[in-house]
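Batch job 17 of 40 flagged for manual review because the log was empty.
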Amino acid sequence: MEPQSYSSGERVFGPPRGTFDADWAATALRSNQPGLDFATSVRLMERAWELLRSRDLRGAELANALVDDGDSEDAITDSAAAVATEIAELYLDRA
């Protein structure tokens, strides 16, 4: 059997455990915010992940930190925080 590339299998469901893929997260964000362009989505998810990891923020606290940093409007930052929090719960918070 020929080896499969990363993008041919796992990426359909999410990045490998313990990693963060800003492109994948941006796509998840855009499913909730379809009017958001891809580049902005990637930048927002990178910032959300940075705050999540550096300050250990989740949910509403993360959304508030994104707003305080001047990132976009509440609905978008709420969605970004929800995506980042879900990724953390699935890939980081499980022992």
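Reviewer: the log was empty due to a logging misconfiguration, but the result itself is present. The radius of gyration is 14 Å. Unflagging and moving on to job 18.
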